[in-house]
Structure formats: structure tokens, C-alpha cells
Design a protein that fits this description.
325 residues, alpha/beta, 2 domains, seven-stranded parallel beta sheet, two-stranded antiparallel ribbon, 13 helices, 9 strands
């Protein structure tokens, strides 16, 4: 058995240091808590009546949310827990962090959303947002700066409280065909603010993971130059080749993901097994890899397919040396 805790193993992978035993693993979200535990995922709970709840009712909700995160990490051997505070106020965020830490100590790496950069707008506002952006780039840059400043101020509050290890920057930039913004515009209104945000968060001592789905290859250098510890999710459905990315930037940034979510949902068992083996074979050499799907364990995905994915990982995703856990 490895002497490292899951948190220590996760940090070692983010720092691209050697890890003994099993390849570290986590999922950005595990939504199948109802199927697995008979409990609604914290982010899917509607708290429209939160202000009407008694203190004891709120405490029960907080307690169950903390338990769900820990049950998920324990059963599925996650090295990190990505929390979704609900309600998403600073006070409730700090209480949730404290509950998880009180019950697990420093066993798990705890992270939460920490992005402030522009992402792909939703369908309802896409046309108006694009018009707004192109009509006045300077105004868009001023707003980008304001958002970064506000997020860094929030991070300072979290830092002063303690208990949080890292931040996942979850603004999506890319479609399957490539970045939503052309590289020139991306370089004007996203890339410099992403770099500033990551630098500020790292200066505070946080580990930073940059997430985006889609075909990141045209902006890969921009993402790596921003300085995150890791990139997630390396989407194979958008043609992102894990081996190619590792050759290009694996000496500068850790890599997370690449197991094809589409196959987990609609492929055959044999296709899932082959894809898991491919991701392990491409990601493991030299370390700096965290095993994960190319998105998350989302509602509607067969839980049995995730179990199958983990079965292969447990048997074949092991480095030389003592096994972890």
C-alpha cells in the first residue's frame, strides 16, 4: 500500500511528480448519486425556500451534502472532491468545506469552480452576446477585467478561511469543431484574463485546473501559457488526441480525462474497455496524468458503464511500486 493519501497523490500528479500504485482519479461531477446512494446530487437540489428553512433544516441539508461527496469519493476512489455549494453563497461555501474537512481531515483534495473568463454563451443569448462583443471590444475587455478582479477577491476570502486546495476553471471555450471565438478575438478578450486569473490564484497557493470541452487544439498554447497546473477534459469526441497533447505539452502541464463519454453512454462494453485501455496507455507514461472521463458522470449515463471503466482502471492503471489504497 502507498503511504500517500489521496490528496497527496492528486497533488503529486498535478505537479507531475512520480506516483506509486494506481493512477490518481476523480470526476468533475458525479451526478448519479440517486442511483448510487438514493440521494439527489447537491447541485440538483432547488433551494428556493432556503430562507424559510429553520437552522436545523439547513444543517440537515448541509450534512447530507457533505456525506454525499464523501460517499462518492470513498466508493469510487476519487482522490479529489469537486464541491458545488448550494446555495452558492460565500457563507454556505465555507460551511460545506468545513463539514467535509471535519469528517475527512486532509484525506481528500477539495476544489471548486473558480473561473471568471468568458465562456460560450447559451443559445438564448448567443446572438446578442456576439453582437455586444464585436460592437465594443474595449468594453468587453473592461468587463473581463472586472470579472477577474471579483473572482480573485472571492478567492482571497476562501484563502483566509482555509480548507480549499484548488480551483477548477470551468468556462467552456470550444465546440467539437474548434474554439467558439476566433483565435484573434480569443487573444483579446479571454487569453490575457485567463492568464491573469491563474497567476493570481497560484500566487495565493491554489492548484488550478483549466477545464474546457471541445476541440482545444487551435488554442492549446494559449491554455498552457496561462499557467494552470492541469488541463481537463481533453475531449476525444472533438478529436483531441491525448498522446499528441502529451507529446506537445506534457512537460509543462498535467493532463486529466480523455475517456470517451459518448462510448460510456452508447458504445458497447468492448468499446468502453478498449477506450479506457487506450487512455491509460497514452496518459500514464511519465506521470502527470489523472484518470477521468472526457466530461463528467452525467445524468443518464449507465452507472454500470462507470463501474466497468473503474474495473479496468483498478486492474490495469497501476504504476510500478506499491499499490495505493
Amino acid at each position: 500500500m502507498s503511504d500517500m493519501t489521496p490528496r497527496e497523490r492528486f497533488i503529486a500528479a498535478l505537479e507531475r511528480r512520480p506516483v506509486e500504485g494506481r493512477v490518481p482519479h476523480f470526476e468533475l461531477v458525479f451526478f448519479l448519486t440517486m442511483e448510487a446512494f438514493g440521494k439527489v446530487h447537491p447541485s440538483q437540489r432547488a433551494y428556493l425556500q432556503w430562507d424559510q428553512m429553520s437552522d436545523s433544516e439547513r444543517a440537515l441539508h448541509r450534512s447530507e451534502m457533505a456525506d454525499i461527496y464523501l460517499e462518492t469519493a470513498t466508493r469510487y476512489e476519487h482522490d479529489a472532491i469537486f464541491i458545488h455549494p448550494n446555495p452558492n453563497t460565500i457563507d454556505e461555501t465555507l460551511r460545506l468545506i468545513d463539514l467535509i474537512r471535519d469528517r475527512s481531515g486532509d484525506r481528500y483534495f477539495i476544489l471548486m469552480h473558480g473561473d471568471a473568463t468568458y465562456s460560450i454563451p447559451n443559445g438564448e443569448e448567443m446572438e446578442s452576446w456576439c453582437a455586444w462583443l464585436y460592437e465594443d471590444v474595449r468594453r468587453a475587455q473592461d468587463e473581463a477585467q472586472r470579472r477577474v478582479d471579483a473572482m480573485l477577491a472571492r478567492c482571497e476570502v476562501l484563502l483566509a478561511h482555509g480548507g480549499l486546495d484548488g480551483l477548477a476553471l470551468c468556462a467552456d471555450y470550444c465546440l467539437n469543431t474548434g474554439p467558439f471565438l476566433n483565435p484573434r478575438m480569443f487573444g483579446q478578450v479571454v487569453a490575457p484574463y485567463l492568464k491573469q486569473l491563474v497567476a493570481g490564484q497560484r500566487e495565493m497557493g491554489y492548484y488550478v485546473i483549466k477545464h474546457t470541452d471541445g476541440n482545444i487544439m487551435p488554442i492549446l498554447d494559449d491554455l498552457v501559457n496561462a499557467g494552470p497546473h492541469a488541463l481537463h477534459s481533453l475531449d476525444p469526441q472533438a478529436g483531441v488526441d491525448l498522446a499528441d497533447v502529451k507529446r506537445r505539452v506534457g512537460d509543462r502541464v498535467a493532463l486529466i480525462g480523455n475517456v470517451n463519454c459518448g462510448l460510456l453512454s452508447t458504445g458497447t462494453d468492448d468499446e468502453v474497455v478498449a477506450d479506457v485501455r487506450r487512455a491509460l496507455a497514452e496518459g500514464m507514461p511519465g506521470g502527470g496524468y489523472i484518470f477521468s472521463t472526457s466530461n463528467c458522470i452525467y445524468t443518464g449515463m449507465p452507472l454500470a458503464r462507470y463501474d466497468l471503466m473503474l474495473d479496468i482502471w483498478r486492474r490495469e492503471g497501476n504504476y510500478a511500486g506499491r499499490r495505493s489504497r
